[in-house]
Specification:
InterPro entries: KH_dom-like_a/b, OsmC/Ohr_fam, OsmC/Ohrsf. This is Osmotically inducible protein OsmC. By secondary structure, this protein is α+β, with helices and mostly antiparallel strands. It has 2 domains: about 35 residues, no CATH class; about 80 residues, K homology (KH) domain (GMP Synthetase, Chain A, domain 3). Helices cover about 30% and strands about 20% of the residues. The protein contains 3 helices and 5 strands. The chain has a 3-stranded antiparallel beta sheet with strand order 1-2-3, with no helix packed on it. A two-stranded antiparallel ribbon has the order 4-5. Helix 1 packs across helix 2. The protein is globular and about 55 Å long.
Length: about 150
């Protein structure tokens, strides 16, 4: 049975972030709040949330986790003990390498490899990072900028 991805018809997604003092931001993402911060060791950080780079890695890990689970469900494969770990290697002020490690209690071997290959095709976050989208930054007074 084919189960469509829930986001297939969505053409845009927007999140917003507001400064909350120091080096902390509160992000509104789909009606959920996420506090993003720097560690206390950084001047202005309070350590009350993950760093922005950790949020990026978390996006990769969570998207891959859900994509593997979706692929398993689509193929009627029993899934147990799924874990996805993402490590970013810094090269100056950016990551030069992201390593995604997928493990599971079940399935293993070739079956897990097939699920991961399928997940790679449907994971929006890893597909986006591989594509290297254009990033446009605009700035101006609050309320003065056109939307979109």
């Amino acid at each position: 049975m084919h189960v469509p991805l829930p986001e297939v018809l969505v053409t845009e997604r927007t999140v917003s972030s507001r400064w909350d003092g120091g080096l902390r931001a509160v992000v509104d993402a789909g009606g959920f709040e996420l506090v993003v911060d720097e560690p206390e060791s950084v001047d202005g950080g309070t350590g009350r949330g993950p760093q922005p780079t950790e949020v990026l890695l978390a996006s990769v890990a969570s998207c891959m986790t859900l994509a593997v689970a979706w692929s398993a469900r689509k193929r009627d494969v029993a899934l147990a003990g799924l874990n996805v770990e993402v490590t970013g290697t810094y090269d100056g002020p950016q990551f030069s390498d992201l390593r995604v490690t997928v493990t599971a209690e079940s399935p293993t071997g070739a079956e897990l490899d097939r699920l991961v290959a399928s997940a790679e095709r449907v994971c929006y976050v890893t597909r986006t990072l591989r594509l290297g989208p254009t990033i446009t930054v605009v700035a101006g007074p609050a309320g003065d900028l056109p939307q979109g």
